[in-house]
Specification:
A five-stranded mixed beta sheet has the order 3-2-1-4-5, covered by helices on one side. It has a domain at 59-132: Nucleotidyltransferase, domain 5, CATH 3.30.420.270. The radius of gyration is 36 Å and the shape is rod-shaped. The N and C termini lie far apart (104 Å). With 134 residues, the chain is α/β, with parallel strands linked by helices. It has three helices and five strands. The longest helix has 20 residues, at 17-36.
Length: 134
Amino acid sequence: MKFRKKHKGEASEVFTDSLNDILFILLMFFLIVATLANPNVVKVGLPKATKDTKAKQDIMVSIDKNQQYSIGSTRVEASMFDSLLSREIRKYRALRDTPVVVINADTSAFYGEVFRVMKIAKRDSAKVVARIEQ
């Protein structure tokens, strides 16, 4: 029995042109699925508002660039400011549960003075909203 020797030539080539397309499609599929399936998201039913939720501005406190105080449109001395603001908050607390103090401060007003007004309002159980004008 005579066996023929096989010709040892080059190994046959594997065409990978279509493999690149398949890998690209799989990569895109897993990227899309990974962004859509986020297990850390908790579904929460949020309440719906029935009316405008802007805070009512009961007491307007203004601090200008010269560090001068005003409650409403009345200019107030710095030494009398704490007691007058507390009195205004008590006056509005008779009308509503938590009065709102809006701080209207100039950009050059000292941060410590704005914080002082916030502290007085919080001490007297009022809600504080700070608005900084430019």
